[in-house]
Amino acid sequence: MQWLEGRRLFVLTGAGISTESGIPDYRGPSTRERPRKPVQHREFVNEPRARARYWARSALGWPKFRAFEPNPSHAALARLEAEGRVHALVTQNVDRLHTKAGSRRVLELHGSLYQVRCLACGSSESRDGLQTRLLDLNPRAAAWSFELAPDGDAEIPAAALEGFVVPPCLRCGGVLKPDVVFFGDNVPAPRVAEAFARLSACDAVLVVGSSLHVWSGYRFVLAAAEAGKPIAIVNLGETRGDAHAMLKLDARAGDVLPRLVSTPAE
Q1: Annotated active-site positions, please?
Q2: What predicted TM-score, i.e. pTM, was given to this entire model?
Q3: Which residues, 6 or more positions from 197, have their beta carbon under 8 angstroms from its beta carbon?
């Protein structure tokens, strides 16, 4: 991708970059034949049983989720940032793997599972701290068997939810929600504005591991196309932005990004 040389690069990443670390996704080739319905924002906010289901599954999935490590694609982007080639990294992922890999110019568009926020008072708590409270209140959960799901929770039998206790906010006793944008919710306006500001300061776009199916990421590709900025996409399978791309590689991120590092800009 010689056209990247000498350009200030805006990178948008999606779930496809993290599947190579072992994290399942919703729309990748491995999940299309067995789709899974993600938790909806309105359902979580309005239905106590939906919250109990989410937190019960999350109590199981969290230890494995937080143990995932960055892969060579994350490391390559961190290296490209250190070399002065990546000027902005906007991720749709909530796994903090870019930060673990050493990237510093990261904007978490959909938030992070590493924090929990109260819907009543807005106070924040670490997910690790909440995990301790979840297991203290529900000691039998540790014995459940499970399959990890894409959003850091796990598949468990419905019967296991009976009697599950959801911890309240430590400050006000309100409802706690992971500090992420659930399906059906909107990315906070200030965060969107920050992402657009970063896009304006760059002159090329690289999309990695995203189908661009959701508007939250696709809008940046549209804005880049309207501004005449060159766009490259690296993703397994077609994406919503293919028609706007100067270059589309139907490939794994791990097969492409490390090669960019091995060929520094002149």
Answers
A1: 110
A2: 0.90
A3: none
